[in-house]
Design goal:
The protein is of the alpha+beta class. It has helices at about 1-20, 45-50, 165-170, and strands spanning about 35-45, 65-70, 75-85, 90-100, 105-110, 125-130, 140-145, 155-160. The strands form 2 sheets. A 4-stranded mixed beta sheet has the order 1-3-6-2. Strand 4 and strand 5 form a beta hairpin. It is globular and about 70 Å long. The termini are far apart.
C-alpha cells in the first residue's frame, strides 16, 4: 500500500515540475494585443530536424504550422509565435524585414488557413534559402502583421527599431 502511495506522489511531483517548465515564454519587445509572444532565432539544418524524421521519409511539423520563404531549405532565421485569437478564414500573415539601412523592407506573405494544434503548437516563419542571409545575419528590424481578407490589420507587432508610433501612424 505505501509503495503505490510513493509512486503516486512521485508522479504528482513530475507532473507539477513539467507544468512549471512549460510556462509560456516572456513577451517580446512590444506588447501589442494579438500576439502571445514572438521569439526569433537563427537555426541550422540540424536545429530544425526532428527525431521522427529518422523513421519517416518526409518532414513532419508536429503541432506547429511552419512557413518558409524557400520551402525546401531549412537553415535560416526563424520567428516563433502564438496568437491570442483565432484568425478568421482567408487571413494573411505579413512579415516585413529590414536588412540594411535606407533600403525598403522585404515583404513576405503567408496564408493563415491552417492553425497550430492546441496546446503547444505555434506558428513558425523561417527566412530560408537566399533570404536567410549569412550564418551570422540577423534583421535590423522586423514587423509581423495579421490581416483579414480585406486587408484590415487584426494584430501587429514589431521590433524596437521598426519605427516610432508616429512614423507607423503616418504609413
Amino acid at each position: 500500500m505505501s509503495s503505490s502511495l510513493g509512486i503516486t506522489f512521485c508522479r504528482a511531483i513530475i507532473v507539477s515540475l513539467a507544468l512549471v517548465a512549460c510556462q509560456a515564454p516572456p513577451p517580446s519587445v512590444t506588447d501589442m494585443p494579438g500576439f502571445s509572444y514572438i521569439h526569433s532565432k537563427r537555426r541550422s539544418e540540424a536545429d530544425v530536424a526532428r527525431a521522427s524524421e529518422a523513421f519517416y521519409a518526409r518532414e513532419k511539423h508536429g503541432q506547429d504550422v511552419v512557413f518558409r520563404t524557400t520551402e525546401n531549405e531549412r537553415a535560416g532565421y526563424y520567428f516563433y509565435f502564438k496568437l491570442d485569437f483565432d484568425p478568421p478564414p482567408q487571413s494573411r500573415l505579413v512579415l516585413e524585414v529590414t536588412r540594411t539601412e535606407n533600403v525598403a523592407p522585404e515583404r513576405y506573405d503567408f496564408s493563415l488557413s491552417m492553425k497550430p494544434k492546441f496546446p503547444w503548437g505555434e506558428y513558425v516563419v523561417g527566412l530560408t534559402g537566399k533570404e536567410a542571409g549569412g550564418s551570422k545575419w540577423i534583421p535590423i528590424a522586423w514587423c509581423l502583421t495579421v490581416v483579414d481578407a480585406q486587408g484590415k490589420i487584426l494584430a501587429s507587432q514589431h521590433s524596437f527599431l521598426w519605427g516610432t508610433p508616429m512614423e507607423l501612424e503616418a504609413n
